[in-house]
Amino acid sequence: MKVAVGEVVLPGDQCEEISLVGEKSKVILGPGLRKEVDGITITKAGTLKKRSPNTYWVDNYQKRYIPSRGENVIGVVVQKAGDIFRVDVGGSCSASLSYLSFEGATKKNRPKVNIGDVVYAKMLVASKDMEPELVCVDSHGKKGRLGVLEEGFVFKCSLNLVRKILNPECPLLNSLKNEWPFELAAGLNGRIWIKAKTMRETIAVGNAILGCEYLNTDEIKSMCTNIASILAGHVS
Amino acid sequence: MTGLPKKVQLPKSVLDMKFMKKTKERIEKEIENTQDHDSLYANIITHEMRSASGNFISEPSFIFCEPMIEGRLSFKGMNPEIERLMELENAKNEKPSGEMDKDVSDEVLARKMEAFNKRKRPQDSPKYVTIGNKRKK
């Protein structure tokens, strides 16, 4: 079936609009789209989206993470194997993380990472035929925001929700940031790590994030006000 | 050694020197490799295959499609290290827009220009261009 931008699409559908644009200028095909000999085919069920100039993708509901290069993810160290750590990121197989890819790590000076630790890392290699590889440093050798996440609480959610709360338009973090101190790391693999001063505050952040999955902008704002007032003790 | 005009090469006389033996061998091997490559697959790789992807670039990740902020955040002094990084990034993002701040807003400019045009245009002959208040006639 022929589809257009903004519609609900199913695998096998074709989009003529994209092929026409592709004849004139460069087009970026995001997840869910594939170039076939006879045009552009949809490979996922969701809504077809466009961002100018010429970026198209299918926004679908998904909980299974498929590693791709450049994404920041949250993983759990499951094994130490010689030079590398095996990290579970929720993909089809565990990812490898070299002990040298931490800030200031050398052969003699190993980073202090134990089995069961939660790490926030960047996908360096993600190919469909190979094990994904993670790093905890940027190209300058600085750790930046990556590294081991100490304490805190990790929960899983859909991949859409992570993208939703990280969208600059989403009011969730803006509404919460002035209420109480907390820290957050959102992995694009559908795992979110949060840390606050008390258990009540941690639960409140977690509930706020999970609660906004099916809410619109205004509903998110009122939910955040609601949670904040409950936490402050005005309402019981 | 011919056929690669762009690359800077050592002169032949230098390469013939005794101590350059290893380098000479390496360079010869490199040239052989690059030349072989094209001829080896010439009958398999067609022109069509080279231009098959056309203008389309496949991107398996959402991070290049959707706008997204950094996923590591801290608020109200929970983790000063992360907050410093966040501040640095915010400062970097705001700088360009700060420089381009408008002294006169678009609406004010439009209103003034309209009034200005109404006052000046009718008696202007198209030959003369008016700039500000200076009018030559």
Automatic annotation (TrEMBL), chain A:
Protein name in UniProt: Exosome complex component RRP40
Keyword RNA-binding: yes
The organism's taxonomic lineage, starting at the top: Eukaryota, Metazoa, Ecdysozoa, Arthropoda, Hexapoda
Xref: Gene3D superfamilies: 2.40.50.100, K Homology domain, type 1 (3.30.1370.10), Nucleic acid-binding proteins (2.40.50.140)
Domain K Homology: 152-198
Listed PANTHER family: EXOSOME COMPLEX COMPONENT RRP40 (PTHR21321:SF1), PNAS-3 RELATED (PTHR21321)
Domain Exosome complex exonuclease Rrp40 N-terminal stretches: 27-64
Gene source species: Arctia plantaginis
GO MF: RNA binding
Domain of life: Eukaryota
Keywords (A to Z) from UniProt: Cytoplasm, Exosome, Nucleus, RNA-binding, rRNA processing
UniProtKB/TrEMBL annotation, chain B:
Pfam families: MPP6
Lineage: superkingdom: Eukaryota
Record PANTHER family: M-PHASE PHOSPHOPROTEIN 6 (PTHR13582)
Protein's organism: Arctia plantaginis
Region feature (Disordered): 114-137
Any single biological process term in GO: maturation of 5.8S rRNA
Protein name: M-phase phosphoprotein 6
Record InterPro entries: MPP6
